[in-house]
Amino acid sequence: MFEMFVPRRPTAYAADASQLPADPMPEIALSPAGAAARVVECHSQDAGVHASQLPGWTLRTEQFSAGRFSGHLTLLRLDHVQVIRERTSQALMKQGMAWPGALIFSLPMAASGDAYFNGHILPFPCPLFSDGADLPPLMTPKYCDVVNLVMDRQWLAGYFNDVGERGLADDLVATRYLRINVSADGIAAMQRGITDVFEVCGRTHVFDFAESRNELENLLLRFVADALTSERSLSMVGMTSQKQVADRAFGYALSRRETPPRVDDLCRHVGVSRRNLQICFQEAFGVSPSQYLRFARLNAVRRELIACAATGRRVSIGDVAASWGFWHWSRFAGNYRDLFGELPSQTLQNNHSSCLRGFARAVSTG
């Protein structure tokens, strides 16, 4: 279906020639993707657990829409590229890192709405390049199906340099975040190709063979090259002033976790009106200040409950809730159930049971 091409192996590339290694064709030590080549499927029912299943990543993921969470990850490890397909059933706030030197090309496959990245709206299905060493907050829509191609920045820049795209190579070395406006036909072609790749992954073990992995990497590089070299506009995605105001307000709220400030307190602290603060949060995250703070605090309670269940430590749910400013028990329990689809006591019980099952499996196989 797709015309394959076989590029030369890229040399290591640097904007400054003095940074190049002495050997012009070194074996490049890349990301954890080079450690193995296999397909892994992961399912989860908690946003935090979902994030922890990404190998080599450090990611905090919080649920920001109401209902039970369901997450599905398909990971394909190639020699130079980590391919991740992520399907989630609730809006998530995500922030963290992949690994130093990583560059991530994200292609939305399906979504129930737009995303928010670093204070900008990312209209579906806008592709995005981002620095894997520092991922700013990303708010996903309630349903999201996205494919991430994770590559070593220098390796990818070396490829573009070898094929005569020195300008793109320079951009990739220097740029942290790029929003790419690709034609509808171009995006549809990439989505069809990615769909074919994952259909093959689900049926066979063809990617245990080096030749197949090489062909797939060539195809994926073609997608990236087409996105960057087509008639399109690339826009930098730096942090907006609205995002800066929202971050200052949120940081102040976290510093007073046991006595959460009111919206008026936040306005006085950051020096803006209530209306302006509302606009800042809506434009940066798509939610109001009060919603954002309530969701963040509920997620913090959930993390503590899951951590206690994992270690078997006895804990008072009321004490954990109060430490995050929830003093009205029935109102807290209702808000918690509305957001996560279960009561806090069920969170403790479910995660404690999961730990016991894991311990039993370890004993039986030990």
Automatic annotation (TrEMBL):
<dbReference type="InterPro" id="IPR009057">
    <property type="entry name" value="Homeodomain-like_sf"/>
</dbReference>
<dbReference type="InterPro" id="IPR018060">
    <property type="entry name" value="HTH_AraC"/>
</dbReference>
<dbReference type="GO" id="GO:0003700">
    <property type="term" value="F:DNA-binding transcription factor activity"/>
</dbReference>
<dbReference type="Pfam" id="PF12833">
    <property type="entry name" value="HTH_18"/>
</dbReference>
<feature type="domain" description="HTH araC/xylS-type">
    <location>
        <begin position="247"/>
        <end position="350"/>
    </location>
</feature>
<dbReference type="InterPro" id="IPR053142">
    <property type="entry name" value="PchR_regulatory_protein"/>
</dbReference>
<protein>
    <recommendedName>
        <fullName>HTH araC/xylS-type domain-containing protein</fullName>
    </recommendedName>
</protein>
<keyword id="KW-0805">Transcription regulation</keyword>
<dbReference type="GO" id="GO:0043565">
    <property type="term" value="F:sequence-specific DNA binding"/>
</dbReference>
<keyword id="KW-0804">Transcription</keyword>
